Amino acid sequence: MKTLNTRALVTVGMLSSLSYILMLLNFPIPPFPQFLMIDFSDLPALVAALIFGPAAGILVELIKNVLDYFMTGSATGVPVGHIANFIAGVLFVVPTYYAYQKLKTNKGMTFALIIGTVTMAILMSVLNYFAILPAYTFFLNAPAMSAVETRQLIVTAILPFNIVKGILISVVFLLLFTRMNTWIVKQETYKSA
Q1: What mean pLDDT do residues 77-84 have?
Q2: Sign of CA dihedral 138, 142, 148, 150
Q3: CB–CB of 177/106 below 8 Å?
Q4: Closest Cα partner for 19 from 105, 49, 30, 79?
Q5: CA 173 to the chain's CA centroid
Q6: Which domains does the chain have, with CATH numbers?
Q7: What is the secondary structure of 142-158 as a DSSP string?
Q8: Could you give the CA distance from residue 82 to residue 75 in angstroms, rounded to a whole number?
Q9: pLDDT band at residue 8 using 50, 70 and 90 as cut-offs
Q10: What is this structure's pTM?
Q11: What is the torsional sign of CA 178, 183, 185, 187?
């Protein structure tokens, strides 16, 4: 694993701040429940991962969620939503990073973002079924959903939402990546020198 030097830590700090601001600019998409919000806060984490490695991307995701928890709080009193957001971000950024490392081209980045989207959507569906939704019902003191209701919510809302979120983030990142690719390569070269 790549170690993070002072320059990397400063850059990660700046990207984490940007990620936190982007997290505040969240919005719902009408066909999905109101608690599922789209934001583009994973974009700085992707940039951090591409330049400094997956640990930097994970660190950006962690700092963003810790900042948001302390600044906005949580409806449950515990950071269930923030933990879910952190896991979703990691499940998107890390597979994207490793897939791109195998295919360092623009088409490779498109393929890597598809892998990241699919990984996030599928694993978040499983985690929502077994851990996240039960945690929400426990901490909100709400009546538990039946297994059928939980599966229906995941299949009709959570899985498609994560696919749409991954696609939107991927499209915006690809637009940025075509402009930033030279800079990212230069940063990787400077980092390894």
Answers
A1: 89
A2: negative
A3: yes
A4: 49
A5: 12
A6: 6-188 (1.10.1760.20)
A7: PPPPPHHHHHHHIIIII
A8: 11
A9: confident
A10: 0.90
A11: negative
